[in-house]
Amino acid sequence: MTEGPMNLTRRHFFATAGGTLIPAAAAPALLLGQDTRPTFRVKVDMVVLSFTVTDSRGRYVNGLKPADFSIKEDGIQQKINTFAEGNKPPVQILEDGSVKPLVTLQADPEKGGIATDAFVGTNVFVLFDTSNYMYRGFVYASDAIADFVRGLDRADSVAVYTFSRNLTRAASLTRERADVLQGLRRAVVGDDAALYNALLLTVRDAARIPGRKVVIVFSNGPDSASMVAPDDVRAVAEDEGIPIYVISTSDVSRDPISSGVFRRLASRTGGKSFFARTWQKQVEAFEAIREDLGNSYTVTYYPSPNPNEGFRRISVEVKTDLARKYRISARPGYRPRTGV
Predict the structure, then answer these.
(1) pLDDT tens by residue, 60-91
(2) 297: closest CA among 100, 104, 92, 66?
(3) Which CATH architecture has domain 121-290?
């Protein structure tokens, strides 16, 4: 995938065509001849929301139907447009509440259509820390990722990105597992870690892909070279509806700052964080993520009119007598996009 010039956080940073991040303060040199007083407008696109439902014992609750859920934004009821459970093909919800298979809008996606299979399975972006912090456990970490890739559902697509100071797209998004594993094996240990730079660019790549997507960060923790703040990355992922799962190999007690950031990144985007120092714990963390993906519900909807141009809070409820015993894990909300 080719990086084009883009505003990364809408507030603080820009990316050049080579993927280099520059502060917004330096951006005016790139904008000569343009009005320096932009007018912003709110643009709300289709919202993609993935979540899990578990019971009081932490077991996944499967088999729920679209009519079992109530989705609200700022207390305003939303009409579900499409619904999917796990890796099953999504269905479209009609006006009368009945469902039908989601159909291809146009045969050629390059002409503006959306292929049905773009919404089947999950687009998984694995971001692998290959900085010098990972030197000792590099081989074991690579093996854990490889096992995870092999075990993904056949409907899932996966990409592997690696990073130290710079981001490398080791394997582009594909369902061909051999291509992904080949790209993973080419990874080599680098120098300083620019985790949040790399994560932001990965989230931006994922945002361009239709359907359900997640980012899985496998890292030792410390970030020594980024130009962006983790909360800026979290805000972008939150707004784009991309859950971030984090597997950290660092010692929580020795690096409480990174551990706290990882927990916040995961919880605010609808993902989960794991702290796994041993190879066995890392394998277990990947297995837990794979189970989460296979037992998630994904809905899309077009937001009802809402005057709120800031953060819109999303609530998901199960409309049954047992709902009070269920726990729903989802991102808390998003900010509608603004454009110039």
Answers:
(1) 999 999 999 999 999 999 999 999 998 888 89
(2) 66
(3) 3-Layer(aba) Sandwich (3.40)
